[in-house]
Structure formats: C-alpha cells, structure tokens
Amino acid sequence: MAGLEELKQAIISGNRDRAKELTKKALDEGVEPREIVVDGIAAAMEVVGEKFRANEFFVPELLIAQRAMKEALSMMSGEAVDYIGTVVIGTVKGDLHDIGKNLVAAMLEGAGFKVVDLKVDVGPEDFVKAAQENSANIVAMSALLTTTMGAMRETVQALDAAGMRDKTRVLIGGAPVTQGYADEIKADGYAPDAASAVEQAKGLLPA
Ligand code: B1M
Questions:
Q1: Which of 44, 74, 104 is the last residue in one of the domains?
Q2: Alpha helix positions (H), the chain
Q3: Number of domains in the chain
Q4: Could you report the per-residue pLDDT of 20-33, keeping only the tens digit for each?
C-alpha cells in the first residue's frame, strides 16, 4: 500500500509529525493495525538497522528514526487486535540501550503479540511481577552490554524461584548475547535479530 511506503520513508528520515499523520490516516482508512506495524513501522526500522550496520546511518539518525517510530506506535494504542500471546519485554537491569529492544517489541506487536514493554533498566523482580500480572507466555530480555548480561541469568533464576517456568518461557537477545549463553543460563530461546525473535517467540507459545 502506497501510504505505508510513505510511512516507512517518514520513519527512516525521522519525520515524526509525518509518521504520526500517516499512521492516523492509514487507521482512518481502515488499514489493519498489524499491517501498519509490519509493512510500515517495523519495515522502516529494519532498513534503519541495515543502514546502521552498513555505516550509512550513525547514532543520531538511529535515535531520530526511533523517535518517529515511537510517535507512529503511539497512534496504535487502543486498537483492537486478536493477540496470539503475551510478551513482557525489557532491557535488563543496568542497561539503557533500547533501540534494538524497541525494534523487537514492534516486530512482536506486528506479528500479533500483546507486548508489555517495561522499557529499560528492568530488574529481575520487575520482570517476574509483570509476567505474573499479565499472565505472560514469554519474558523477553535485551542486553547490549557484556556487563549487564548477568542480569538475564538472575531473571531466569527469579522466574524459577517464583515457580513460573512451566508457564513462562524466556527469550533473550542483544549484540553480546549468544545461543551458548542462552543454553548456559537455561533460557528457552535466543534470537540474533528482530525478525528471528518473532519466529522464536511463536515457537515458544504453547501448542
Ligand atoms: Co552504547 N555501547 N553505551 N550507547 N552503544 C554499545 C552497545 C557498544 C558496543 C559500543 C562500543 O563500545 N563499541 C558498547 C558495549 C560494549 C560491550 O559491553 N560489549 C557500549 C557502551 C560501552 C556504552 C556505555 C557504557 C558508554 C559509556 O557511557 N561509557 C553506555 C552504557 C549506558 C547504559 O546502558 N548503562 C552506553 C550508552 C549508549 C547511548 C545512551 C549513547 C546509546 C543508547 C541509546 C538508546 O538505546 N536509546 C548507545 C548506542 C546507540 C550504542 C551503539 C552505538 C548502537 C546500539 C544500537 O542501538 N544498535 C552500540 C555500538 C554498536 O552497536 N555499533 C553501543 C542498533 C540496534 C538496532 O541493534 O541493539 O544490537 P541492537 O539490536 C538488534 C539485535 O541485537 C537484536 O535485534 C535487534 C535488531 O535486529 N536484539 C534482540 C536486541 N535485543 C534483542 C532481544 C531479543 C532478540 C533480539 O529477544 C528478546
């Protein structure tokens, strides 16, 4: 849809007002919220991520695009969606990096999950509390610092201690995180990027 391509370009170029306006227009025209997220918002952030990796975009462009993404997403709250599962997501304790986490959250929303975003610097007890309150299927954690990865292990242990691991699966990711680390801390899934996070999350839902 042409409007969603325009929305994608508005987010890539960091045009917040235009991104908001185009999201509202698409909703008013009856475009499915999930289509707006997948083909407009998440698609834009994938391009932003690629440009960043290719050194075509630097941190300021990344942050400006992220703000436009947030404005667009803010227009979606309250839209009725049939959820396929609930994910509680956050960046772990001590870690303030949220661009990748936001991208994963947007992609999960686009794939039909209800996403409860605890933002950044989220302690194990906060993950546990939010997972209990929202009957979450999945706790998803992001870490960008080698020094904060340990908080993922602590959160897995806190979920264990709360007796929640039979119902709540753990998905982890972020630049320094590996499958080996996920195995070591007994997380149920690891994803190297936002698209594979969605695949992993779907695979972690009860059959
Ligand atoms: Co910081 N930073 N930073 N930083 N920062 C890194 C991560 C670093 C690699 C830079 C470097 O030294 N080369 C380094 C970490 C080294 C390490 O520990 N290995 C670093 C450091 C050291 C720091 C500070 C300590 C610097 C300082 O103050 N001395 C400090 C720490 C602050 C804190 O968190 N307590 C700090 C601060 C910051 C800013 C605030 C300036 C800013 C963050 C802004 C924000 O997020 N709102 C920032 C940024 C932007 C970066 C870099 C440049 C970019 C990170 C990013 O957003 N990438 C980064 C260097 C780099 O990567 N080149 C760096 C783009 C994003 C789309 O990718 O987050 O990897 P990413 O997410 C990907 C995947 O990892 C995956 O999917 C995403 C999309 O495909 N993924 C998941 C992420 N989470 C997932 C969860 C999943 C699954 C997949 O499942 C749940």
A1: 74
A2: 2-12, 16-28, 33-35, 43-53, 59-74, 99-110, 124-133, 150-161, 179-185, 194-204
A3: 2
A4: 999 999 999 999 88
